[in-house]
Amino acid sequence: MKEYVLVVDDEQSLRQLLDLFFRKEGFVVDTASSLAEAEKAIEVHAYDLVLTDLRMAQPDDGLKVLRAAVQKNPWTQVIVLTAYATVETAKEAMKYGAYDYLTKPFDNTELRKIVRASLARKEDDAGRRKALRESVRGTSAFEGIVGRSESMLSVFELIDRVAPTDANVMILGESGTGKELVAAALHARSNRKEFPFVPINCAAIPEALIESELFGHVRGAFTGAVQTKKGLFEDAHRGTLFLDEVGELPPPMQSKLLRVLQDRSLRRVGGNEDINIDFRIVCASKRDLHQEMAGGRFRDDLYFRLNVIQIFVPPLRDRREDIPALAAHFVRKFAGKHGKPVERIDGEAMRALLAYDFPGNVRELENLLERGTIMETKNVISIGSLPPNVTKNVTKGPGADSSHQEIFLDEGAFLDTEMDRLEKSYLVKALEKTGGNRTDAAKLLNISFRSLRYRLQKHGIE
Predict the structure, then answer these.
(1) In angstroms, how far is the first alpha carbon of the chain from the final one?
(2) Residue 335 burial (CB count, 10 A)
(3) Could you tell me which of 54, 47, 40 has the C-alpha nearest to residue 11?
(4) Cys-Cys crosslink for 171: which of 139, 284, 298, 394, Cβ 3.0 to 4.6 Å?
């Protein structure tokens, strides 16, 4: 199988030499002379290998190429080129996920050795990816996150790829999608897992107290400061700091956070001593930070510092195939918590859950099933235990017998079969309604065209 490489360098002569080298080595080669060209190429192709100069028009262009490559395909290997004077920057790139670096000038023997080693690691990564997918399909979970849809498998792969690095991560998604669980999974798979994971909800801290909460204060710094107190940044030393709803930080606090990220040191409120700290920062936002930057409400330099790698957590309506596994997980959880004998969800109730759009996402599903578990007097959750806004669009068909469509709480072969049956049924009905138009069918099902195509292939639907 041919392997694909992208060479990124603004020096034409070097770009041509590298193009020739890789073609002789049997690669299919694309070249780019700028960050913009590289990003366009990466958007179209998932490369096996990307070789990029670190410094082009802007000093951090190479790091941005690295970020784009890993974002598109977590298993792409990246090698960076650097001048002797910027070796430290190259080592920083390795912390962000680059495989290795080459110092210019270099010879072909050295380049060939590093390329072969990087592709050998890619083979190891392929085995790891296969094992990850098999594990998730067997358990329907990854680091405490329930789901095995293609969109969530992509999230899990990106977590697995970037967790061992020190790259800052921005997690985006609607409320209730599980952004904090993603942050915790990044920590659990990182080299910092033995040290604290410190989550902070920026929206929940009053503006007058946020600096003291984050950075701490010394005794007498303000009225009520009767003793010196460490802040949450210090609590996260050597671990991971998770800033949830980072878009809610007031502008003065954004400036101070940027300084801490740049200097890796802070001063407590009222103090005059710099305290060095070692931490990885992961943040999340339900706000559109591009709009916030355009409106002058969020600093663009802080955004680009935080957004090295971006993980988007899809809404539940775009991964409906995960609903049965999530529902089984929550019913088991709440049956135990409340001492209820609930063992299954009947087919009519499951159809209602699958048809509902869940504006509150996974958190809303969790709340619905806790309510349903509490309300039920039998060992099955029926449609009568769900609220009217969830059930209003579902009617029981004539002669339908929901007893043969129950979702049991052991996620074994029965659940797999039932999930596949339901998914295939929805696909066929959507295509029938749209006269076979796949684009319209994807819109009807509230999924992407790519996701529709994958599912049609999975079920052998022409």
Answers:
(1) 27
(2) 19
(3) 54
(4) 284
- CB-neighbour burial class of residue 152 (10 A; exposed 0-12, middle 13-18, buried 19+): buried
4-131 belongs to which CATH class? alpha beta
Which pTM does this prediction carry? 0.78
Give kind and range of the element (H or E) at residue 260: helix 251-263
| Nearest in space to 150 (alpha carbons), one of 410, 458, 440, 462 | 458
Q: What are the E-state strand segments in 273-363?
A: 275-276, 280-285, 309-312, 344-345
- CA 239 – CA 237 distance, rounded (Å): 5
Q: Domain map of the chain by residue range?
A: 4-131, 140-314, 317-459
Helices (H) and strands (E) in the chain, counts: 19, 19
Is the preceding omega at residue 252 within 30 degrees of 0, hence cis? no
- In 3D, which of 310, 263, 252, 257 has the Cα closest to residue 285? 310
pLDDT tens per residue, range 244-289: 999 999 999 999 999 999 999 999 999 999 999 999 999 999 888 9
Stated as kind and residue range, the H or E segment containing 304 is helix 300-306
Between CA 64 and CA 53 the distance in angstroms is 11
Tell me the angle at which helices 361-375 and 347-355 cross, rounded to the nearest 10 degrees. Answer: 150
CA triple 344-156-94, angle to 5 deg: 165
Q: Kindly tell me the burial class for residue 65, based on how many C-beta atoms sit within 10 Å of its own C-beta (0-12, 13-18, 19 or more).
A: buried
- Closest to 180 (Cα-Cα) out of 210, 201, 204, 164: 201
Residue 167 CB-density burial (10 A; 0-12 exposed, 13-18 middle, 19+ buried): buried
- The reply to whether 140-314 shares the fold of 4-131 is yes
Classify the C-alpha dihedral 74-80-86-88 as positive or negative: positive
Largest CA distance in the chain: 77
Looking at residue 203, what DSSP letter applies? Answer: G
Residue 416: alpha-carbon gap to chain centroid: 25
Is the four-CA dihedral 391, 393, 398, 403 of positive or negative sign?
negative
What is the second-level CATH architecture of the domain 317-459? Orthogonal Bundle (1.10)
Of 406, 407, 340, 330, the residue nearest 378 (C-alpha): 340
Residue 347 has pLDDT above 90, yes or no: no
